[in-house]
């Protein structure tokens, strides 16, 4: 498991590792990104609607 990126977030940090995606194809990875993006967009739409 290799650390790919560390992102400072407030007083904490987000660490991104390659152990989940290293065995995935480019298409599988893109599908995961699309699904997560859809969930995030849906969340913010619900928040904006009240």
Automatic annotation (TrEMBL):
Organism (species): Blautia caccae
Protein name per the record: Uncharacterized protein
